[in-house]
């Protein structure tokens, strides 16, 4: 098994670079520009069309939210001044703060929120649950809009304000776009505006401070509170070679590295000019996703054979090294340590046996169909997960073809429902914050509603029934019981294979101030001295 990434030759170069004289602090406009090495290449600007985290990070810069979650995952007003709940929980009326404006200087209206909500509800798993309980969603006037519900939905504010794929508000003219088509105009009302003329996918993306933005006056708390733009410009530069990125950080050519390679963390920590800390509130969970539409993984027996070969420890060591303090196994679908965490039915992930997996594959009816695994060459953590899977699938007898591409291409290709001979795929990998896997309604990979599920499109009526029952759970005991049943069913039919979690620090220069912990990488309240 692949256990660890090869040591980069650039480690030596980065260490040597630390002996160079330290540059002086930037002056003038440079002092108000944050230079960022992002986790991946930004190829899509639409956070409804794709769930790619790099697109979500962009969205947090340019869009605002009706409400947002704090560090305890409690929804708080954001664009909203507040909301009122009536009719025994079946009516929610939201009122927007006055003076909100889009980047094109048009006023933000309730109609924009309604159109954005309707588009978002088509694609988001929690939004779909909300839509199923909505009788009417309409603007009452320019500042107020109303949900009228079939029955009480106490999770409504959490649904639209959660950290993973929340409802970002676009102008109505953009929000009426088919949710399965990409919006390419990034006009929002957030603290920064996207500079389209300086966007060069694969190289650079730029945002500028939006002077008309009106932040809330509270201190930041998770994703809630004041989103104060304290920088004039934010520039993302894609540096696919990790050793080059490390040297750029040490030499003062870059200010912030979102996802440093774990092998290079010791080099970064030895620099007196750098801070290396965990920013995300939860660990990062790995995901192995099958394409359920086409052979061979439309065959449950083949999926189960793969799961029998999986040893989470191999994946986690490949990403984060041998120190178990940097990672942890989690052989269930819900975030470990949370109220719904369960290993009921998870025995298949404890098999960890290639010989048994080979035997199961022989008995599955697998006919040698090609398995196309697309791996992101410029995203080291997800690439490492992908290569471990490619190795174990080959060893149990699957006919594997690895296609290496940049992350932006992976994001585009995974949306294809075509068979592999027409540009489709069989297996992809991704990651998710543990804060987004704690309950069924926000768990992206646990939705099994076929064409409307996340890429891979699993379909299982029992999972969907249990998800709906969880929403109606009357107490904690019933909630826990349904959670355990969901884990058991997911382990039986395998919409995906969980790969455990690792801690992913970020790195920034010491003259970067105001960095705070949150469920996502955000850049408001950050400044450079």
TrEMBL record:
CDD domains: PBP2_NikA_DppA_OppA_like_16 (cd08502)
Pfam families hit by this protein: SBP_bac_5 (PF00496)
An annotated GO cellular component: outer membrane-bounded periplasmic space
UniProt keyword annotation of Signal present: yes
Single GO term (MF): peptide transmembrane transporter activity
Main location: periplasm
Domain spans labelled Solute-binding protein family: 75-417
Protein name as annotated: Peptide/nickel transport system substrate-binding protein
Organism (species): Muricoccus roseus
Lineage, broadest ranks: Bacteria, Pseudomonadati, Pseudomonadota, Alphaproteobacteria, Acetobacterales
